[in-house]
Amino acid sequence: MLGKWVGMLILVSVVVPMAHGVTPSECKNEKNNLVNNCRPVIFGRNPSAGCCQNVRDAHIECVCPYLGPKAAAVIKGIGVTRVVKLIEGCGRSVPRNYKCGSITTPP
């Protein structure tokens, strides 16, 4: 079950903005909002308006630390193409070959 939540974080964080000065408390709230508002996406539903708002507002430094191999497996299960379409449907573009939490993550 934890892998599904981590996968949801990948879904909503692939292309989140980078910001400086976000406190640990703000990051925790952001992560919790993403998980709570975007949970139905894991089960095949489209993202709600609240989920999309969280996708647009999330900071990469808040979400990427929660990503790992289990999350990557969940994304494969959802389907990378579907994930990209969902993120773009929320009003965010997805850079080609973007890797959250890796050395190649753009600033």
UniProtKB/TrEMBL annotation:
Q: What name does UniProt use for this protein? A: AAI domain-containing protein
Q: Which Pfam families does the protein's record reference?
A: LTP_2 (PF14368)
Organism (species): Abeliophyllum distichum
In this chain the Bifunctional inhibitor/plant lipid transfer protein/seed storage helical domain maps to 10-100
Keywords, ordered alphabetically:
Signal
SUPFAM superfamilies (UniProt xref): Bifunctional inhibitor/lipid-transfer protein/seed storage 2S albumin
Q: Where is the signal peptide?
A: 1-21
Q: Show the taxonomic lineage.
A: Eukaryota, Viridiplantae, Streptophyta, Embryophyta, Tracheophyta
